[in-house]
Design goal:
Layout: H1 16-30, H2 36-45, H3 47-54, H4 60-82, H5 88-102, H6 112-125, H7 130-156, H8 165-172, H9 176-184, H10 197-217, H11 219-224, H12 231-239, H13 243-271, H14 277-301
Helix pairs in contact: 1-3, 1-4, 3-4, 3-14, 4-6, 4-9, 5-6, 5-7, 7-8, 7-9, 10-13, 10-14, 12-13, 13-14
Amino acid sequence: MSDFGLPLRDHIHPEVDDIGDRLCRWAARVGLITTDAAERRLRGAGFHEVTAMVLPDDPAETVELYAQWITVLFHLDDEQDDDADRSPESVREVYAAITALMLGRPVLVGSPLMSALTDLWPRTTAGMSVRWRDRVIANLHRHRDAFLTQIAHREAGTLPTPEEYPALRRESNGMFMFDVIESACGTEVPEPLVSGEAWTELCAASNDLTAWCNDIRSLAKESANEEPTNYVTVLREAHACTEGEAIAEVRNQILQRQKELDQAAAEVRDQLSGQPEDLRARIGHLTDVIAHIPGGHAAWLDTSARYRPPAA
């Protein structure tokens, strides 16, 4: 069990170090890192390690692809969080460029992010349907809209309510990554399962758990940056309680959400009965991967340099 009480794998991918080396070479090739210091930060972040914990038995190529997407996600997230002057117009421009690339249209914005996605997207879409692509884009647009909502809160000096927060945080955390992992694992989830309540809840609960654990670990940094999208901050202000009491409440919510994740995973497996054996095995594996993302992520929070307090 992780520090948050989430189940952990009992092993990690045996090629984790080599995967980390290849991730750094890829990031340098596409321009996401350009200095030795940037490479050290990427290695210290350990995106290859969290992916290797979540996908310990998959081919190295699967782990690498998803680690590259995690690197892109955090690059995109850092662009939003670390640029206090970022305008809604600039956010829309970035997502319009990403959307154009995903639709095969000319892209007029040049940046390391777009260079990375130009390399990643064709490899990710190989073997996937147009319906899957459209699902990724729809979730990407919700990601954009969540960032725009966060900008509006920053500008207004307001916070989301406890009722508004979970959905906002879920979208800002990148629901499209649960579409991407289908491609990484070589399994597109078919209709009607993918749009059904059980699969939707499985992915939402897995996402929520990673986000809420992250909120606790990144609280000090986000408080210093006056970042409003943090569950602890939202509950503390809404309930007029202490920070410690708010953290305890988020931890209780995490334990409850884990139970809901387990239930959703069980319901998905029940729905697979009667499916062809190969499809049942592949989606069963994907279900297991998604169910273990929170625990792997929670363990990674304790080792990643991104969440390590600065030296005194």
